[in-house]
Amino acid sequence: MPRLTPSTAGKTARRAARTLAALKSVPVAPGAAVSAVAAAAAAEVATAEAVAPPPPPTSRYTTPPPPPPSTPAKPFKLQPIQPPPPPFEPRATFEVSTQIPRSYFLGHHTAALSRMRQVLSNVGLIIECRDFRVPVSSWNPLLEQSLAAGDNKRARIIVYTKRDLAPESFRDRGRNASSSSSSSSSSSSSSSSSSSPPRLHKQAAGEVIRYLKTFHSSTAHTSHADSILFLGTGQTHSQSLRPLLDAIKSIARKADSLTGLRAMVVGMPNAGKSTLLNRLRARGMNLGKVAKTGAQPGVTRKLGTPVRIIPGENDTDDSSYMGMGEGVFVVDTPGVFVPYVSNPEAMLKLCLVGCVKDGLVSSTTIADYLLYHLNLAGSFEYVERFGMPGPTNDVHVFLRAAARRTGKLKKNNKESLEGAADWVVQEWRKGALGRLLLDEVTPDSLVAALEAAKIPSLSMNQARKKEKEARKVRNENKRLGLGGGDGSLPTEAVRDAIFKSS
Ligand SMILES: Nc1nc2c(ncn2[C@@H]2O[C@H](COP(=O)(O)OP(=O)(O)OP(=O)(O)O)[C@@H](O)[C@H]2O)c(=O)[nH]1
Ligand SMILES: [Mg+2]
């Protein structure tokens, strides 16, 4: 076949097409040689079409025509590399309005306090309950001073309750690992998974316990106690009930009274006083619940009748009960709040743990404060639980997600933020949304609380006036460049006396 050039290809194609058309128009017998001619012509058309259409003549001086629209060239674009999202930054501080209520000192608190003072002469032991999650904020100097009256020979035991709702210490973690029945504790400890971002603020529970023990063991101040115990419900923490009973027995033996020992269980509202009384009675006497308990403050309204928690020496053959007379009796008391909480953040803490009636401070503020602490501690269980893409500092985002997940919706299908806030706080109080220590416990914070406790308890108005005056002095000192402008107390000597030797 002759070599086809673009110009001859067109001619050849047209000629072949004509031949083919002529052949098609002539009737032929099947199998005739004509078909071979036709095939050859068809092949010639195909070859020519493959080469045609010929490219238009190009010249160096003419602009080449644009490419046909059927084959648009894709412009090559550099895709920018997305930087990874910045790591989550929790809020470092929480802005508390100074306008929030700072008192929950009710009529029955005053009445209970004066009744306690009346019966004090018969009481040989004070068992003071404090919530372990707020060991400093749940300190009630008014109660302490009122009941330390007289020659101050009365024995004192401090029980830090709700230990199971605070983070585990390493020792507990080891215990739980070997215990098969610690489902609740293991689920709540998941907040400390290694995938969590580094904690900015997470004091180890073990360190808090060490500081508190050293502090209360010191006889250099009025907050000294004969025993300090950390109690909680659940398998791990209820084991401390036995050491508490032993400590009480030892005090009873020392008292060596024929009538036995009378003890009074005191503390802030909802600290777990009645629960403790029931548990002591169950363990010491193997008897059922006598005191009413409940998740809100103010369940116990009056001083109870004495309840026996340890049998008398004549009721048992056990020689360890010798010298305890008729045994040990405990009186339950109503929770007593402080007349005025000078630090507004401490008030939020007390609201969060349930020491103050819900509703006194807006539930959204309390939920926001909880969110702030969860984030600070790197306790992000809420993210997965509420189906969120990641942690947040925005309480509305947090509450909307919680409302959607729990069906807390209004009639118009909008999320109920108040409903979600109430639910979230209740859930956290049960230990189901992460465990937290809300107070930072250090030698300095303990000694500062001790110094603050020396100031006599004031009424709300007196305290406000005093606060104003102190602020004035601080500002004046600052202006003159004098020390103590931050309001810190000269605590170094006291701190060294308590903590240096340990
Ligand atoms: N998880 C846990 N819950 C506790 C503990 N102690 C008490 N509670 C709960 O805390 C709530 C308050 O307990 P109560 O014994 O009624 O407290 P209270 O100090 O007598 O309270 P008021 O009589 O109102 O002052 C109840 O729901 C108890 O079940 C504890 O150690 N761990
Ligand atoms: Mg009670």
UniProtKB/TrEMBL annotation:
<dbReference type="GO" id="GO:0003924">
    <property type="term" value="F:GTPase activity"/>
</dbReference>
<feature type="domain" description="G">
    <location>
        <begin position="263"/>
        <end position="337"/>
    </location>
</feature>
<dbReference type="Pfam" id="PF01926">
    <property type="entry name" value="MMR_HSR1"/>
</dbReference>
<dbReference type="InterPro" id="IPR027417">
    <property type="entry name" value="P-loop_NTPase"/>
</dbReference>
<dbReference type="GO" id="GO:0005739">
    <property type="term" value="C:mitochondrion"/>
</dbReference>
<feature type="region of interest" description="Disordered">
    <location>
        <begin position="169"/>
        <end position="203"/>
    </location>
</feature>
<dbReference type="GO" id="GO:0032543">
    <property type="term" value="P:mitochondrial translation"/>
</dbReference>
<feature type="compositionally biased region" description="Basic and acidic residues">
    <location>
        <begin position="464"/>
        <end position="479"/>
    </location>
</feature>
<feature type="compositionally biased region" description="Pro residues">
    <location>
        <begin position="52"/>
        <end position="72"/>
    </location>
</feature>
<feature type="compositionally biased region" description="Low complexity">
    <location>
        <begin position="178"/>
        <end position="196"/>
    </location>
</feature>
<dbReference type="InterPro" id="IPR006073">
    <property type="entry name" value="GTP-bd"/>
</dbReference>
<feature type="region of interest" description="Disordered">
    <location>
        <begin position="45"/>
        <end position="78"/>
    </location>
</feature>
<dbReference type="GO" id="GO:0005525">
    <property type="term" value="F:GTP binding"/>
</dbReference>
<dbReference type="InterPro" id="IPR023179">
    <property type="entry name" value="GTP-bd_ortho_bundle_sf"/>
</dbReference>
<keyword id="KW-0547">Nucleotide-binding</keyword>
<protein>
    <submittedName>
        <fullName>Mitochondrial GTPase 1</fullName>
    </submittedName>
</protein>
<keyword id="KW-0342">GTP-binding</keyword>
<feature type="region of interest" description="Disordered">
    <location>
        <begin position="461"/>
        <end position="495"/>
    </location>
</feature>
